[in-house]
Amino acid sequence: KKNHIRLIPLPGLRGTIYDRNGLTIADNRLSFDVVIIPQEVENVDTTYNRLSQVLGISRPRIESIVKRDYTAPFAPITIAGDVDKDLAFRLEEKKQQLPGILVLPRTLRWYVYGERTSHLIGYLSLINKEELEKLGDYGYSMSDLVGRSGIERMYDKYLKGEDGGTQLEVDATGRLVKILGSKNQKKGTDISLTVDAKLQAYASDCLEGVKGSVVIMDPRNGEMLAMASSPSFDSNIFVERGRGDEAVDYIRSSSRPMLNRAINGQYPPGSIFKIIISDAALEMKKITEHTTFVCSGKYFLGKAEFDCWKEGGHGPQDLRDAITHSCNIYFYNLGRKLGPDIISAHAQKLGLGKPTGIDIEGESRGLVPSPAWKKTRRNQNWYEGETLNVAIGQGDLLVTPLQMVEVVSVFATGGNAPRPHIIKKIGNADVQVPKPRTISVSKSALGIMKSAMVNVVASDTGTGQRARIEGMTIAAKTGTAQTPDGEPHAWFLGFAPADDPKIAFVVMIEHGGHGGVIAADIAKKILDFAKDNTEIFK
Q: Cα dihedral angle (312, 315, 319, 320), rounded to 10 degrees?
């Protein structure tokens, strides 16, 4: 029999993804594949039967794989991927008894934190034929894994390695005659994130058992410190062979674990929108901080009745009181003073109704309704009752948690809206981030708002008092957003420390009830953790 040529591919390593402190988030690990070269198998019956026993795969299954995946003579066909290391070594020891069977080392993507970083980092899967037609000229091959979401997708061209391999001449028994040539593999570019991996993991753990999200950002520069969404998925499942059923379960699940609720989830904001209404009213000089309305628990618009959440009412409320207690009646009055067009314009000025421009794909726009929008979209007139609903963050109004962390950053910084971003470095080069938008806002209005938001947590009658932390002044606002069915959504947003903000945060729990309970509790735990276990407050 003649000698023949064997090609041993060596896929390029993807770049490593690090957190802001150099901790590894996504890397590559060594795995072993059992492959067959049909032309080198001397006794098909004996080889297939032995392989079936060792691998625990039926002979018909082996034959089916060989038939399905055959592409060219002497091209290796993978029978079992990512096999146990001990099994790989046993097969390697028996290779003289199993000609045509090889154990090839391969690298697999490894996500260190699994479910805790999946929405941020994303996942990989095999390139499809349509993609290969477009990307073939850029070094992609049919065996390549490509990014499907998150950082892996957005920065695939940087992370992708360059394949290498070895061309061998072997004799009829598969023994090496000589090496004809080789090409070294190249690793893709490493990427460093703004995220703190420890904080990210803890925020994700705090969401266990609920649907919702946590977004934590440095309000001074827009660096994303953590972005967690629940339920989540394990990115490792998509690259490990034999776990396809689990991947399908994720995709089909009614709880939508593949949805990044932090940037894709759109919700009525409820009472967290009251900070926007208050700021607009102060800016437009419709009120002062001392303007008082009496809350009896009910507000009448003609024959229509609008309720406050507190039965019996809050009594006389000035602006600080109304924010501290989240009094609906106060904001019904503000809504009527402002009107829907001013409310809509101010919300959009602060960043609602459009993407923030964060550097991962799939961000939702949200919705800021107005009379013009309703006429265009539905060919219907606007009713004054809708203004009251929007004034307390209800109606057609929709926001994402990410949008709201940008909004609250404006209050934290005194008028700067930084561009939220996740990438800190590509290779050794710092990523250039657009300068923060400077929003024309009244400094005195923001000062009033900040002191009112401090009262939300510090006051014994504040709706956010459960988030209180000794030694830290927190400015915050609770939100309880009514839904068509089930419990209301729970919101808690703010910044800390109030006098020198280093963290802006949003906690959103779907159907979580009152924002001052579960959402405030989670925020407190996360701020406590950040204070004791990270460098963020130092």
A: -90
- Residue pair 129/146 in contact (Cβ under 8 Å)? The answer is no
Q: Based on the fold, state whether residues 146 and 221 are members of the same structural domain.
A: no
> Tokens 């939300």, residue?
456
Whether 228 and 377 map to the same domain: the answer is: yes
List, for residues 341-389, the tens digit of each pLDDT value.
999 999 999 999 999 999 999 899 999 999 999 999 999 999 999 999 9
What is the C-alpha radius of gyration for the chain, rounded to an integer number of angstroms? 29
Are 157 and 284 in the same domain? no
Q: How confident is the model at residue 240 (pLDDT cuts 50, 70, 90)?
A: confident
What whole-number distance in Å separates Cα of residue 477 and Cα of residue 269?
11
Q: Which residues are catalytic?
A: 271
Please list, residue by residue across 185-213, b when 16 or more beta carbons sit within 10 angstroms of its beta carbon and e when fewer do.
eebbbbbbbbbbbbbbbbbbebbeebbbb
Domain that holds residue 288: 197-239+259-533
C-alpha to C-alpha distance for 451 and 537, rounded to whole angstroms = 21
Residue 249 belongs to a domain: no
205 and 182 within one domain: no
| Residue 140 predicted with pLDDT over 80 | no
Here the tokens at position 66 are 């060989």
Longest dimension (CA), the chain: 100
Q: 187: which 2 tokens? A: 């690793």
Q: Within this chain, do residues 148 and 202 fall inside the same structural domain, yes or no?
A: no
**E strand or H helix that includes residue 307:** strand 304-307
